[in-house]
Amino acid sequence: MFNQQISRSAYRIVMLVLLAVLFLAVNLFSNIVFRSARIDLTENRLYTLSEGTGEVVAKIEEPITLRFFYSERLANDYPRIRTYATHVRDLLEEIRNRSDGQLRLEVIEPEPFSEQEDLAMSLGLKGAPTAQGDIIYFGLVGTNAVDGLEAIPFFTDEREQYLEYDIARMIQNLSRPARPVLGIVTNLPLDTGTGGLMSAMRGESLPFMIYEELRDRFELEYLEQQFQTVPSKIEVLMIAHPRELDPATLYAVDQFVMRGGRVLAFIDPHSEVSLTAGPDGQPVRGYTEASNLEPLLKNWGVDYDPTKIVGDRGLAQRVQTGLDARRQESDYVIWLAVQRANVDAEDIVTADVMRLNLGTVGALAPAEGATTRFTPLVRSSDDAQLYDLDYVKSGPRPDDLLRRFEPSGESFVIAARVSGPVSSAFDGPPEVELQAQDGAASPRATPAKPEAHLAQSVGDANIILFADSDIFDDRFWVQTQSYLGERVAQPIADNASFVVSAIDNLMGSNELISLRARARIDRPFTVVDDLRRAAERRFLAEQEALEGRIAETEQRLTQLQTQGVADLPNGGATEVDVESEIQAFRAELLDSRKKLRDVQRNLRREIDGLGAQLRFVNVGLVPLLITVVALGAVILRYRRRKARAEKGA
Predict the structure, then answer these.
(1) What is the pLDDT of residues 366-401, one digit of tens each?
(2) Burial 143-171 (b: 16+ CB within 10 A, else e)
(3) What are the DSSP calls for 2-33, one per residue?
(4) Nearest alpha-carbon partner for 56 in 95, 93, 87, 89
(5) Claim: this prediction has a pTM higher than 0.85
(6) Could you tell me if 266 and 215 are in contact, meaning their C-beta atoms sit under 8 angstroms apart?
(7) Residue 342, class by beta-carbon neighbours within 10 Å (0-12 exposed, 13-18 middle, 19+ buried)?
């Protein structure tokens, strides 16, 4: 019996040892074999390698080397960096595995005062100092066979959701011999910032972040706002809120489209970015408040009224007002936060756009009898109306706009794609105009070899129009921070994604579109927003009525206090009657003010109630359900054991 007990004990010990060894073996095997395996349960598949990355990698014709510099030992005390570095390395290895040997990955740990650290510094990487004085390197450098070099100086938290796009863009830039040429016609200070050239030279302003994106992606060719031909090397012409173009320049754009050139145009009835004051307190010299492209728009099959601005109560941005101590924010119906439901999910340019932040936008519509196809890309909601430009320029307050709001029930088009055959807006080249130059008139330079006039487009036109220029304004879509001497962008909307995706699409390059839009802003609480807007509409109506009642009561009270008995309807009333009526008016005044405070306090009652319900579900109900299920499982298991015991007995 004793030997049998020893045998059973030894058997149990051996089994425990074998299970421990098996557990360790399974863990080691899974860490090696399934290092990059993961299940993506997010709604928008944020952590799944995009097909666009595979297309970029498949087009690599010559080997590319990626050097991942990571100070692993020094980063052990920084869990956030360590976790992020694991994600970066997993992604790099997954991309390498899909490259069919064309992508080489080197992981380098630059120890302090080592040759690897010198190499990292020479390649332009930035190091983050620790509290002990050491330097952590966490960046990526890519090189190709022709001495091309691209670098991500430091992987910052702000760009984590753009990680796959940043790496794919680096690979694509290294895999092609020359970047495509983007022509730019604009009166916006894209490359200098709101302070203009002089402020930029003094270091007082910086380029717009969208310009930085374009400069990294394309070769930029600026065209003056008076030209007679578009250079043949330009594949796409971006016209961003230009000043009024003369006939010769409009003809050059017209013929560019006739020859098959693609156009991305931003026009605006009221450009707030143009009116933004620089460091000297004034807009950039020569600013343009409004822009238009007539007569080209009409010939492209588009109607556009430059005297109307879209107001949208359903998509209004929240702005700081500071007019009421109890309510610091209000809906600003002429600044729009366009949501996913208001963009075309079928068009590749907007398929992954989740939010666009815009200001004082215009409306586009298909022209009657047009030969082109007019496809809306961005729309307002149907809780919208058109305001007169003159009224908007008068500077109404957000609450004033809401009080005058009368929804038309119509959804207005803010951006559209125009495609199909088009005819020229001109019968031939316009006469060359004389222009003042140093006080004398002189003819404008003409092209050395003027091309033959085209009355019809060679093929189908491909044009994207956007009735807003504030899409470029950093204030609307991005938060910038300085990190290790670099300006880091943290997008809060997809404005840059739309612009660059549109250009990529017009140039015929679509691989990066799905990647760029993987950066997601916080999902909006639509139920809360609807409750808040409904409560504010009631608040404004009741507030206006009560404020009118208070003003009328105060006026009547003042009259009684200053004029006395004579002001009463009954001339024979006594001073006692006067005092009685004064007391009644004071009571009415106090009651009205109390009701106004109640209205202001009730503004958030429904929202707070919803928040309380959510807190109960998250904090109380879910744990309670888990507890009930666990107790049920325990009871069921007990009953089964009891049933087996009774059956065995």
Answers:
(1) 999 899 999 999 999 999 999 999 999 998 989 889
(2) bbeeeeebbbbbbbebbebbbbbbbbbbb
(3) HHHHHHHHHHHHHHHHHHHHHHHHHHHHHHHH
(4) 95
(5) no
(6) no
(7) buried
